[in-house]
């Protein structure tokens, strides 16, 4: 039986009387790809913000590897192994692809702000950076300025910089948003590859991607858990069909 790497217990977030997340009990199994889905306004991004401490919960508990991290600071969350990849590509556009990954490696090694260090010292990280780029299919773009990359490759680079932090749990926020079919396919395969060695929790609207990747799915509606299970189970749920697709299931 799989072990839970992340759990929430009665996780709730209120804003001036409005409940954005309501008593969410989530269990993410180690080594799984777990998808968080639901209609717009369901509370998915708020849950991510609570997990990564960009928002404090009103009530409830967050456990990572059995440890209570509810009141940890965002930087401490990352240091403990939870790293979030944002909905909008978060890379340095005027650096090279290699330099972007190297900066992430510097942070992991406690050298995040050591930009004054000589190229000779920083170049020691190049082999590791190149290995990460190779793992996401970007090694031939190492010397390209990041702004020149196609959108799908920028997202692949973002995944490489996330991997540079060596997370146990990756939170992917809409990894295929705004992509054409070719980039969606490439990114889906990349997430599948990454998920062979790490646990992934992702918010994703593309149900084709979800059905292809997710071992387990949690469906939110109005901030609360509506259903949970495999894709076959949740897609056959009448309440999910009505809430997520806006139609009654016959």
What distinguishing features does this structure have?
Rossmann fold; 25% strand; 10 helices; 10 strands; six-stranded mixed beta sheet; 250 residues; 35% helix; alpha/beta
Fill in the CATH topology of the largest domain: Rossmann fold
Global mean pLDDT:
88
Q: What is the fourth-level CATH superfamily of the largest domain?
A: P-loop containing nucleotide triphosphate hydrolases
Report the order of strands and helices.
EEEHEEHEHHHHEHEHEEHH
- Rg is 19 Å
Strand order of the largest sheet: 6-7-8-3-9-10
The fraction of residues assigned to DSSP E strands is 25-35%
Main sheet characteristics: 6 strands, mixed
The rough form would be described as globular
- N- to C-terminal distance: 35 Å
Our count of domains comes out at 2
Q: Can you identify the CATH class of the largest domain?
A: Alpha Beta
Classification by helices and strands: alpha/beta
Unreliably modeled segments? none
Helix content, binned percent = 25-40%
* Tally of helical segments: 10
CATH architecture of the largest domain: 3-Layer(aba) Sandwich
Instruction: Report the strand count.
Output: 10
């Amino acid at each position: 039986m799989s072990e839970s790497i992340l759990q929430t217990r009665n996780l709730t977030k209120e804003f001036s009387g409005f409940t954005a997340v309501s008593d969410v009990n989530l269990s993410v199994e180690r080594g799984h790809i777990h998808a968080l889905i639901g209609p717009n306004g369901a509370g998915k991004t708020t849950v991510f913000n609570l997990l990564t401490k960009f928002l404090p919960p009103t009530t409830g508990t967050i456990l990572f590897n059995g440890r209570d991290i509810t009141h940890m600071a965002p930087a401490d969350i990352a240091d403990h192994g939870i790293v979030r990849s944002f909905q909008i590509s978060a890379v340095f556009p005027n650096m090279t692809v290699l330099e972007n990954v190297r900066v992430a490696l510097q942070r992991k090694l406690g050298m995040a702000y050591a930009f004054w260090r000589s190229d000779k010292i920083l170049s020691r990280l190049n082999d590791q950076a190149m290995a990460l780029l190779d793992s996401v299919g970007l090694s031939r773009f190492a010397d390209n300025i990041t702004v020149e990359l196609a959108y799908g490759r920028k997202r692949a680079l973002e995944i490489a910089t996330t991997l540079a932090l060596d997370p146990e749990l990756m939170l992917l926020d809409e990894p295929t948003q705004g992509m054409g079919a070719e980039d969606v396919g490439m990114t889906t395969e990349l997430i599948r590859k990454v998920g062979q060695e790490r646990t992934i929790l992702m918010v994703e609207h593309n149900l084709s991607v979800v059905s292809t990747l997710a071992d387990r799915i949690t469906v939110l509606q109005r901030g609360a858990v509506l259903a949970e299970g495999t894709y076959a189970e949740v897609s056959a749920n009448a309440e999910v069909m009505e809430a997520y697709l806006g139609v009654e299931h016959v």
